[in-house]
Specification:
- The complex is a heterodimer of chains A (248) and B (253).
- Chain A is of the alpha+beta class.
- Chain A contains six helices and ten strands, in the order H-E-E-E-E-H-H-E-E-E-E-H-H-E-E-H.
- In chain A, helix 2 packs across helix 3.
- The longest helix of chain A is centred in the middle third of the chain and has 22 residues.
- In chain B, helix 3 crosses helix 4.
- Chain B is 28% helix and 28% strand.
- By secondary structure, chain B is α+β, with helices and mostly antiparallel strands.
- At the A-B interface, loops of A face helix 3 and helix 4 of B.
C-alpha cells in the first residue's frame, strides 16, 4: 500500500494512481473486524447465523439484533458497524415494501440484492458521504428457489451456496466447503452454523458470545424468522459439545 | 347517380347531420335537432361525446389457460364510430386485456402497462406474471380514478399460476375471479353466466360459454354489437378467433 499517506486514501472521489479507492477498502476492514456471520443455502431454505460479543453482563439478551427481517420471506444478517447496517436494512425494507405494493408480488431475491447493492455502491461515489462500514447477507425464499446473497461495502454483490463475512470468515468458509449442500436440510444447516461459529470462538481467550440464528425454509412456510428457542438451545449445546471435543 | 333520401346510406352521404332522421321524422327532430330559436344546430352534438366502448366483454380461465372475448362496437353517442373494433388488446406476450369505458382512457392505460411490463421483463429477465400486469392496471386506475372511465379485465397465462382472470372495475378495485364479465352489455347476462358457468370447464366448453354469453349480451344491449373477437391464451401462445355478426350463437340453448 505505497499510496497510503500520500492523501489518496482520504476520499472516495479520488482514485489512487494504481486505481484503487482506499476508503472502500477501509470500509471492508470495518467488516473484517466485526463478528462473524454465516449463511447456508439448502434445497429447502436458508439458514443464517451471527455471533455477537456480550459487551456487558447487564446487557439484555437479544438486544442489538444482527439478524433482521426485511420482508415476510426475506431476512438480512449483518456484520460491521451496526448503525450503518441498520440504514441498509431500513432501505431494503422500503424497497421490499414498495416492490410488493407496485408489482403485486413479493420482491425476488435478485432484485432485492440489486437494490441494496445499488444503494451501497452509491455511497462510494460522492465526497459528502462515506461508504457503509458493513456487509450484509440476504436470505430470500419467496416464489423462486431459496437464494443467498452477500453485498459488500463496495456495492459488489454475490450469490452464494454458502458464505461467511466478518472476523472469522476464512475459517468459516473452509468449514462450509466441507459440507454437502446438496443433501443438507435447513434444520441441519442451523446446527452447522452454530457449530462453525463456536469453532472460531475460544472460551478461554475470547469474550463470551451470544448467537443469533435464523432461517427461512419450507418448515417455516417460507417466512424468515429466528429459529425457535428449543432449536437454538439444541444447536448451541451441540456446538459447545463439538467445540469441547475439538479441544481434547 | 340517384339518391333516395329515405335510405339511410344516402342520407349519410347527402346530409350527415341528419342521418338519423327517417322519412317520417326520427331522432333529429324529436330531439330538437335544429334549434330555430337561437339559430344553433345541435344535431351533430353526439359527435362531441367521448368515444365510448359501450361494451360486452368477458374472460374465463380454464385448466391451463384463459379465454378473453369482446364485441366490436365503438360508439360516439348514438353513432357507431367503429363496428369492427378490437377491444381485446395485448399488453404482453401472454397477457391480454378486455377494455370497456372510454376508448381513449383504456388505450392510454394499456400503453402505459405495456411499457411497464416491457421494462419489467428487461430488468428481471423473465416474463411478467399476470398478477403483476393486473397490479399495474390497478395502480393506474385507482390513483387516477377521478379522471378515468375504465373498466378492465386482465387475463393471461404465466408459468407460476397458469391461466388467470383479474377484473378491475371503475374505481380501481382489483379482483381475481374464475371468470369476469364487464361493460354495459354484461348487465343482461349475469343470470346467464350464473346459470351456465361451471368450474372446471374445458377449453372448448369455455369458448362456447363466451360466445353464447356475448351473443346474448350483444342482442339485448344497444351499445354492444358487431362481431365477437376472442383470444385464447395458454402455455403455447395466443390464438385469435373471430365470429362474424351473422353467425352469432344467439337463441335457445
Amino acid at each position: 500500500m505505497s499510496s497510503i499517506g500520500t492523501g489518496y486514501d482520504q476520499s472516495t472521489t479520488t482514485f489512487s494512481p494504481d486505481g484503487r479507492v482506499f476508503q472502500v477498502e477501509y470500509a471492508m476492514k470495518a467488516v473484517d473486524n466485526s463478528s462473524t456471520a454465516i449463511g447456508i443455502r439448502c434445497k429447502d431454505g436458508i439458514a443464517m447465523a451471527v455471533d455477537k460479543p456480550v459487551i456487558s453482563k447487564m446487557l439484555v439478551e437479544g438486544s442489538n439484533r444482527r439478524i433482521l427481517n426485511v420482508d415476510k420471506h426475506s431476512g438480512m444478517c449483518v456484520s460491521g458497524l451496526q448503525a450503518d447496517a441498520r440504514q441498509i436494512v431500513n432501505h431494503a425494507r422500503d424497497e421490499a415494501a414498495s416492490y410488493l405494493d407496485f408489482n403485486g408480488g413479493p420482491i425476488p431475491g435478485s432484485v432485492l440484492c440489486d437494490r441494496v447493492a445499488g444503494l451501497m455502491h452509491a455511497y462510494t461515489l460522492y465526497w459528502y458521504v462515506r461508504p457503509f462500514g458493513a456487509s450484509v447477507l440476504i436470505a430470500n425464499y419467496a416464489e423462486d428457489s431459496p437464494e443467498l446473497y452477500a453485498v459488500e461495502p463496495s456495492g459488489l454483490s454475490y450469490r452464494y451456496l454458502a458464505t461467511a463475512i466478518g472476523k472469522g470468515k476464512n475459517a468459516a468458509k473452509s468449514a462450509l466447503e466441507k459440507l454437502d449442500l446438496s443433501t443438507l436440510s435447513c434444520r441441519e444447516a442451523v446446527m452447522e452454523c452454530a457449530k462453525i461459529l463456536y469453532m472460531g470462538h475460544d472460551p478461554s481467550k475470547d469474550k463470551p458470545i451470544e448467537l443469533e440464528l435464523s432461517w427461512v425454509c419450507d418448515e417455516t412456510n417460507r417466512m424468515h424468522q429466528l429459529v425457535p428457542p428449543q432449536l437454538k438451545i439444541e444447536a448451541e449445546e451441540a456446538a459447545k459439545a463439538a467445540r469441547a471435543a475439538m479441544d481434547e | 347517380m340517384d339518391f333516395d333520401r329515405s335510405r339511410f346510406v344516402d342520407r349519410e352521404l347527402l346530409d350527415p347531420a341528419r342521418v338519423m332522421e327517417g322519412a317520417h321524422g326520427g331522432y333529429g327532430r324529436s330531439h330538437g335537432g335544429i334549434h330555430v330559436e337561437n339559430g344553433t344546430d345541435n344535431s351533430l352534438d353526439f359527435l362531441k361525446n367521448p368515444v365510448d366502448l359501450g361494451t360486452s366483454i368477458m374472460a374465463v380461465a380454464f385448466k391451463g389457460g384463459v379465454i378473453l372475448g369482446a364485441d366490436s362496437r365503438t360508439s360516439t353517442g348514438v353513432y357507431i364510430a367503429n363496428r369492427v373494433s378490437d377491444k381485446v388488446t395485448s399488453v404482453d406476450e401472454k397477457i391480454y386485456v378486455c377494455r370497456s369505458g372510454s376508448a381513449a382512457d383504456t388505450q392510454a392505460i394499456s400503453d402505459y402497462v405495456t411499457y411497464y411490463l416491457d421494462m419489467h421483463r428487461t430488468q428481471y429477465g423473465k416474463p411478467p406474471k399476470v398478477q403483476t400486469a393486473a397490479s399495474y392496471f390497478r395502480e393506474l386506475c385507482y390513483h387516477n380514478k377521478n379522471n378515468l372511465t375504465a373498466g378492465i379485465i386482465v387475463a393471461g397465462w404465466d408459468a407460476a399460476k397458469g391461466g388467470q382472470v383479474f377484473s378491475i372495475p371503475v374505481g380501481g378495485a382489483l379482483l381475481e375471479r374464475p371468470y369476469a364479465i364487464g361493460g354495459s352489455g354484461s348487465t343482461y347476462i349475469y343470470g346467464f353466466c350464473d346459470a351456465y358457468f361451471k368450474p372446471g370447464m374445458t377449453r372448448e366448453q369455455c369458448e362456447e360459454f363466451v360466445a353464447k354469453a356475448l351473443s346474448h349480451a350483444m342482442a339485448r344491449d344497444g351499445s354492444s354489437g358487431g362481431v365477437i373477437r376472442m383470444a385464447i391464451i395458454d402455455e403455447n401462445g395466443v390464438e385469435r378467433k373471430f365470429i362474424p355478426g351473422n353467425k352469432l350463437p344467439y337463441g335457445p340453448l
